[in-house]
């Protein structure tokens, strides 16, 4: 059998059950009865029966055709359930598009059973042949001896209501439209597959997650059906005895992170308190077979294991994960591999290497593209979109405008120019920034406050659309500010985790694609304390994973305030300690680093210490980052930390001029350092808008040049040189 036939067999048999009954003396070469009879004479042979059953579009006919081809015998009759549809009446023909061909009553079950009864005793029969264009049947000449019976399970079992046949929608549409001549609209009217929703590029993130979860739950439940059961009797509240089954209690899950974690909730919903281990495997194209991390139950060798990974592509990661389980002592036959979609290549790789591993999937795809991605594929489980957005935001030559000031903070800014803190004035300032000619060409992202996320320009265009139309990614501030950390000397932690997941879902719907969370630490005689470091690191990590689970790239911001008289070396030491703790926490929470950005402080002396040159700041800052920030992080976007507009830009440019290896883009995420001279120039007056926008464009252009190490200084004049430092600065 050729490779194509093997792949076809894999596809055809993916969710089909086989059963065979082989009676004695059924050699095909033997003579067969020519007349109906129930006698037991020597020359009468009962038929050899092969039963093939499965849901609609599961591949029954394909399997039957392959069996017939392999038997190479003309005395084979195929009894297909599709041959036993009722002839449609004139009134039914008028509404054929509404006719449900999947309902049990659509079949002439009595005729089907009658023919089966005759075949059982070796009688010749006439098999109907249904015409799906005229919706009527005729008969085929009688044939005898071998019987292949293709049966949809729906009308013949009480469990049909528990199954979702629509998970095989793609194959079903091909079959019904090409082979049966049905109208595609009719097919879709009969069955609206959940797979269609998760494959549609227009499906929202929320709907994708919802319908994926439904399909995953079905896969998990079906997978559990392959576990061993024992009969068990229990006493009911009425005093009666009920005979049922007892579940296999030696069970655990193992998810291939990160995408496998999307299946964990469904498994926990079906198996309360189940242990779930983690396996992290490097996946890069088709050659990624490197085990990076594993944490599995110590007694896993004594358990059945449900291996979770929603997409089976090349099969390399699956082979690596299964190999690990077997090395841990898990018998191959005790592993059930659950996934949502599978490529034939991956199935072949796994089945060839581990023939006793069971694979449960909801759909077998066409194959893989040149990038080894499953096609036609579906929406992402987060990783691809997160990586793409993070990488784009970190584009060299671009940076982020932090326009996420809270209502109170922006009120202070407006009061400094004698402008009232009302919604219309806040909207006017942000419109001034977002519509400044060519300013957005220097930006890859804008961090918005919740109010701004839903605001429009004066002509009614949503700010989010305005940014997107100019290739700028909208972001959102999601923390709820700092609170005192009990047991410390005035240190703080950040609040806002309780409702974060729900808010992230809403922000994603509104168009946001990244988020920002600010943690604040300080330098003192004993600060930052270990409690403060760990508390804030854990908070940042928890925030980051929640954002990623809801489609948002998290900007991780552990800001060390410049307040104090410490020197630059002490700031460098504190920065390294804090960043090391943050990345330890991010890894502990399985945060995808490629889908994150870091927003740190620059390493500078304290506010009460003598200043140092930009070159010294650059050397200390880059060294601290090289010691602590993994190269997987695509970009580092600095906060200005109270520096003047000019200082922040000059220091950023000095870092990018350093001739040392910097595996990440070094860019900016400035608020005050991009807006201060613009705000002063505007002063709340319409006649100053054009000049204010020119000042803003100048700052954006200057910082764009700084990300490339090309800023020569002087942009913005005397306003850009004014210090923006505020002691104990709070948003």
From TrEMBL:
Set out the biological process GO terms recorded for this chain's protein: glycolytic process; pyrimidine-containing compound salvage
Q: In which pathway does it act?
A: Pyrimidine metabolism; UMP biosynthesis via salvage pathway; UMP from uracil: step 1/1; Pyrimidine metabolism; CTP biosynthesis via salvage pathway; CTP from cytidine: step 1/3; Carbohydrate degradation; glycolysis; D-glyceraldehyde 3-phosphate and glycerone phosphate from D-glucose: step 4/4
PROSITE patterns per the record?
ALDOLASE_CLASS_I
Catalytic reaction annotation: beta-D-fructose 1,6-bisphosphate = D-glyceraldehyde 3-phosphate + dihydroxyacetone phosphate
One GO cellular component from the entry?
cytoplasm
Q: What is its main location?
A: cytoplasm
One matching Pfam family: PRK
- The Phosphoribosyltransferase domain covers 190-383
Provide any one GO MF term from the record.
Answer: GTP binding
In short, the EC number is 4.1.2.13
Q: Where is the Phosphoribulokinase/uridine kinase domain positioned along the sequence?
A: 49-137
Obligatory cofactor(s): Mg(2+)
What are the entry keywords? Allosteric enzyme, Cytoplasm, Glycolysis, Glycosyltransferase, GTP-binding, Lyase, Nucleotide-binding, Schiff base, Transferase
Q: Does the keyword Cytoplasm apply?
A: yes
The subcellular location is: Cytoplasm
The family this protein is said to belong to: Belongs to the class I fructose-bisphosphate aldolase family.
NCBIfam families from the entry? FrucBisAld_I (NF033379)
Name under which the protein is recorded: Fructose-bisphosphate aldolase
